[in-house]
Design a protein that fits this description.
The chain is an alpha+beta fold. Helix content is 39%, strand content 12%. The protein contains 23 helices and 16 strands. A hairpin with a 2-residue loop joins strand 4 and strand 5. The radius of gyration is 23 Å and the shape is globular.
Length: 523
């Protein structure tokens, strides 16, 4: 596996250690509502895919685990973002029951995890035993004492019951996503990173290749740069009645699409900006987010709208996935679980037609530099005020390790590989017709990880990212120019820094920059 450079992100543990020195941020103020999406919608496919099956995947039993001493019929209240990523708790409910545990799932919207969990923590309601959250929040949650340290639970005997096998976890997801101030506070369940997906059948079509070469004077290939992204997107955008790969279109077809919905659209901007090697802030916490390169990156994001479905401003994960898998778009940048769903004919109209590759980059001094954002990446933790901490820990450990291969290798969840174990068993990914195709998918994930670029991991991360997302969204909606949007973001970032204590934030960020420079993220 080509994981070496990605695994080196372990150096970012310096950030997690640095966070301990500062008080955690306050809950961000409610954001302005998202801009309204355009009225037009993407025409559905003529034969939509059948509804996917939802029964548990086959138990692979690659990991050898044992049940704990039976708990006394306890109920574990578990909170997480609603949808397919909570399915493992349904998949393995009989195993939890055998351990004397009933799982009560509390589902919240994808973009509402921070607000819901922080509100309950501050109120001291004791509403949760196990919390699922995005690891950029770990400094806030652990630093405020909301989470139970897990080291002692992991060290209990026998290891077959309690050990989460941290050595198997890819270092970034362990050292950065799971730790705070040298202690373990969370266990990973999802290894998120972005990758390119494209319609392999269209790129390999002889008629389309000839037409592209005639129009642009070069060979048709998956986009290497963000300029290529716009050019290829323009080429494949067609009206109803035009021909695509020898077929007359009954509905419009679009060259590209992005996640543009309020909440995480900032990550698709950072995909474009990160390759320039500019950190979020300079050494004095002066925001770099409105640099000329950042404006160029956001302008590229805005320019891509002309090649996208008219309702793209409403595209979150589900809408972007469906636009691609229903055959309406030539290429997308998405999380790495989408090719698994795309290979499943019960969820995809283009099974067998998907190619994967690196997120496009920028040609900088003759070399194309690629970066791929690593947004979200779920972890699970035990709430400090849980009345059933030992049972809560075992639930987290069972999903993070014991059944993790089953959970990431199925197309029924959106969970992505985060353990060496997950990369060493391509035969588990049975949605692909051959082991070789499964291995090609895993190689693509490894390549995406090698380009991995982290979120902000200092206090205030939730607030900084929310402000950026708001103004990226306004630029996409035409309410602000890219320059106006990023100038406004920089001003808001300065206010957040001042509120949290500029001197302390500078100290923490300086330590962070040491790690960033070691990774080649800055010059």
């Amino acid at each position: 596996m080509k994981l070496a450079r990605y695994v080196s992100i372990v150096l970012l543990v310096l950030l997690a250690v640095a966070v301990a020195a500062c008080a955690a941020p306050a809950t961000p103020a409610p954001a302005e509502p998202p801009p309204a999406a355009a009225e037009a919608t993407v025409a559905p496919t003529e034969q939509p895919a059948a509804a996917p099956k939802t029964e548990a995947p086959a138990a692979l039993d690659v990991v050898k685990w044992d049940y704990p001493p039976k708990f006394d019929n306890v109920t574990i209240n578990l909170v997480g973002d609603a949808g397919h990523n909570l399915r493992p708790y349904e998949f393995w409910k009989d195993e939890f029951a055998k351990a004397g545990i009933t799982i009560n799932l509390i589902e919240v919207p994808f973009s509402g995890v921070y607000e819901k969990e922080k509100t309950e923590f501050i109120a001291g309601t004791g509403a949760f035993d196990v919390v699922t959250f995005y690891p950029a929040y770990i400094g806030d949650f652990a630093g405020n004492g909301y989470l139970e340290p897990l080291d002692d639970y992991m060290a209990k005997s026998p290891a077959s019951v309690w050990d989460a096998n941290s050595e198997d976890v890819l270092k970034p997801f362990w050292e950065l996503y799971s730790k705070f101030d040298g202690k373990v506070y969370a266990l990973p369940v999802d290894g998120d990173v972005h990758m390119l997906m494209y319609r392999k059948d269209l790129f390999e079509n002889a008629d389309e290749q000839a037409a592209f070469k005639e129009k642009y004077g070069k060979e048709l290939a998956p986009p290497e740069t963000w300029d290529d992204w716009l050019q290829i997107g323009e080429f494949f955008t067609r009206d109803a009645g035009e021909t695509l790969a020898g077929v007359t279109l009954a509905r419009p077809f679009y060259g590209s699409a992005d996640f543009a919905q309020r909440g995480f659209s900032f990550a698709w901007f950072v995909d474009r900006w990160a390759a320039f090697g500019e950190p979020y802030f300079d050494k004095d916490m002066v925001p770099q987010v409105n640099s000329p390169n950042a404006v160029k990156a956001l302008q590229n994001f805005v320019d891509g709208l002309k090649n996208a479905p008219p309702d793209m401003l409403g595209y979150g994960y589900d809408e972007l996935r469906d636009a691609f898998l229903k055959g309406n778009v030539a290429m997308v940048v998405q999380w790495t679980d989408v090719p698994k769903k795309g290979a499943d004919p019960t969820q995809s109209d283009i099974a067998g037609k998907i190619g994967v590759g690196r997120v496009p980059g920028w040609n900088i001094d003759g070399t194309v530099v690629h970066r791929a954002m690593m947004p979200v990446g779920r972890v699970v933790a035990v709430a400090a005020d849980s009345q059933n901490k030992e049972a809560a820990y075992w639930v987290a450990k069972h999903v993070s390790y014991d059944r993790s291969l089953e959970d990431v290798s199925t197309s029924l969840t959106g969970l992505d590989p985060y353990r060496h174990l997950h990369f060493s068993h391509p035969e588990a990914y049975t949605m692909f017709p051959t082991v070789e195709e499964a291995q090609a998918y895993l190689d693509g994930v490894a390549a995406a990880m090698a380009d991995g670029y982290p979120e902000i991991f200092i206090p205030g991360a939730a607030q900084y990212e929310d402000a950026l997302d708001l103004h990226v969204n306004k630029a996409l909606a035409g309410q602000e120019t890219p320059q106006e949007a990023l100038d406004a973001t920089a001003a808001e970032w300065d206010k957040i820094t001042d509120k949290l204590g500029r001197d302390n934030q500078i100290e923490l960020w300086d330590k962070a920059l040491i790690a960033y420079k070691a990774l080649g993220l800055t010059q």
